[in-house]
Amino acid sequence: MKKSLKKRVALGAYNFGLNILSRTPLVKKKLFRKYLGKYAYRTDPAYDKDVYERYSEMLAKHQIVYKDKIIMDVGSGDNYYHAYFFIKNGAKKFILCEPFADYLLDSVVLEKRGEILLGKKKFQEDRSVFENISVVSDHLEKLKHLDDSSVDIIISTSVFEHIDNVEKCIKECQRVLKSGGVMIHQIDIRDHADFEEPFNYLGYSSWNWRWLRTNSFVYTNRRRSKDFLDSLRRNKFTILQAEEDRQAFGAVKINREFGDYTQDELEVIRLLFVAKKN
Ligand SMILES: C[S@@+](CC[C@H](N)C(=O)[O-])C[C@H]1O[C@@H](n2cnc3c(N)ncnc32)[C@H](O)[C@@H]1O
Questions:
Q1: Ligand 1 pocket: which of 22, 159, 176 to mutate (most atoms <8 Å of CB)?
Q2: How far apart are CA 163 and CA 53, in angstroms?
Q3: Is 217's C-beta closer than 6 angstroms to any atom of ligand 1?
Q4: Reading across the β-sheet that carries 237-246, which strands appear in turn?
Q5: How do residues 166-179 score in pLDDT, each as one tens digit?
Q6: Residue 98 CB–ligand 1 contact under 6 Å
């Protein structure tokens, strides 16, 4: 078996195990929520602070005011500290939307973590900040807890590359955003099996890729920057800003299914965009 295929099969088996374990009620409710959740600092508060600073700067650049607005982070994982900064600086509500919220982060775990991070005294002072952060457990394909035209700003970081039906998710963002609402999404367009080899996955046929990735805990699509931007335009978004990072191919073999893309389109490894609902 080729080395890279072995690595992928091992990753698939690992993800499958993790998936089963995380669905076990004992792990999900009893162990994680009660005891482990508050200690599981899987994300760095400095990372969340950086997300807040970068995204609020981008909003400012386009004269988009977030004071008194409702912001939602889709696929927030167990991150929440950026929400704290947005509320502290005037946002009305912050919704952390994470399909695995049941065992990653819910309002009970959120408060416990807030208390540990800020210390008891500061946490008590900022209690009202936490009261304006809510957690919903929805997939972006169907935001069941959100009404039409109910959110002002949607953000995400490293989420859209994990979504199978991108078009459906863009339509769902369009539905829940208010008229004139804005989105900022950062998309990591690399093969997640090995970030050092970001184009390796373009060598597989669609059939092979599905077999290796579907139902995996870390499903990754292979959509290129152009596909995301085209989907936005089709769904009546105006792109206010689109930043793309590129990396040269080297000697990577590309499957002929990607033959319609130019090399320039294929070489984008990160997309960061600001888009406005028309
Ligand atoms: C790489 S993590 C990024 C987490 C966080 N945004 C960050 O910056 O650290 C990808 C996140 O996307 C979420 N996700 C995957 N599929 C999703 C979907 N269909 N709808 C919403 N979120 C999804 C995962 O649960 C996970 O939390």
A1: 159
A2: 26
A3: no
A4: 133-136, 93-97, 70-74, 151-157, 177-188, 268-277, 237-246
A5: 999 999 999 999 99
A6: yes
DSSP 8-state class, residue 36 = I
Asked if residue 158 has its Cβ within 6 Å of ligand 1, the reply is yes
pLDDT in tens, 113-151: 888 888 899 999 999 999 999 999 999 999 999 999 999
Bridge partners, residue 277, by sequence: 237
pLDDT (tens digit per residue) in 174-194: 999 999 999 999 999 999 988
Does the C-beta of 140 come closer than 6 Å to ligand 1? yes
Could you tell me the distance, in angstroms and rounded to a whole number, from the CA of residue 2 to the centre of ligand 1? 30
Q: Which two tokens stand for residue 57?
A: 């700067």
Alpha-carbon torsion (77, 117, 106, 89), positive or negative: negative
Ligand 1 centroid, distance to 240 Cα (angstroms): 24
Q: Which atom of ligand 1 is nearest to 139's Cα? A: 20
Global confidence as pTM: 0.88
Fold type of domain 3-277:
Rossmann fold (3.40.50)
What pLDDT, on a 0 to 100 scale, did the predictor assign at position 2?
Answer: 63
